UniProtKB/TrEMBL annotation:
InterPro entries, alphabetized: SMc04008-like_domain, SMc04008-like_sf
Region described as Disordered: 80-100
Gene3D superfamilies: SMc04008-like (1.10.3340.10)
Pfam families noted in UniProt: DUF1244
Coiled coil: none
The organism of origin for this protein: Afipia massiliensis
Lineage of origin: Bacteria, Pseudomonadati, Pseudomonadota, Alphaproteobacteria, Hyphomicrobiales
Protein name: SMc04008-like domain-containing protein
SMc04008-like domain location: 29-95
Length: 100
C-alpha cells in the first residue's frame, strides 16, 4: 500500500471496529463456529486487544478487553447468546485447534 503509516493505522483501526460491530450484531454465530471456520473467535480478538495494550503499557484487564469486543460483560453475553456446542462442533474443535 502506498499510504503513510498514520493513515494505514487509522484504516486498520476502522476495520477492527467494523469487525467487532459486525460480530456484536451476529450473536447467532457462535465462537466455536468462528474457531472451526476461521481459526479465531471473539475471545481471540479480546486476547489480541489485551496483548496490544500490554505491549504499549496500557492497563487493560481481561474482563475489560472482552467487554470491548462483546459490547457487554462476557458472562452476560454467554447467558444471552451462547448455545451448547454440538458433538460435531466439539470434535472439529478438538481436531483443528488443540490449544483452545
Amino acid at each position: 500500500m502506498a499510504i503513510d503509516e498514520k493513515t494505514r493505522t487509522e484504516l486498520e483501526a476502522a476495520v477492527f471496529r467494523r469487525l467487532v460491530e459486525h460480530l456484536r450484531e451476529r450473536t447467532d454465530v457462535q465462537n466455536i463456529d468462528l474457531m472451526n471456520l476461521a481459526g479465531f473467535c471473539r475471545n481471540c480478538l479480546s486476547n489480541w486487544l489485551k496483548d496490544a495494550a500490554d505491549d504499549k503499557g496500557v492497563a487493560l484487564s481481561k474482563d475489560e478487553s472482552r467487554e470491548a469486543v462483546y459490547g457487554m460483560p462476557y458472562e452476560t453475553w454467554k447467558a444471552k447468546h451462547q448455545t451448547e456446542a454440538t458433538p460435531d462442533q466439539v470434535a472439529a474443535m478438538k481436531k483443528n485447534h488443540t490449544g483452545h
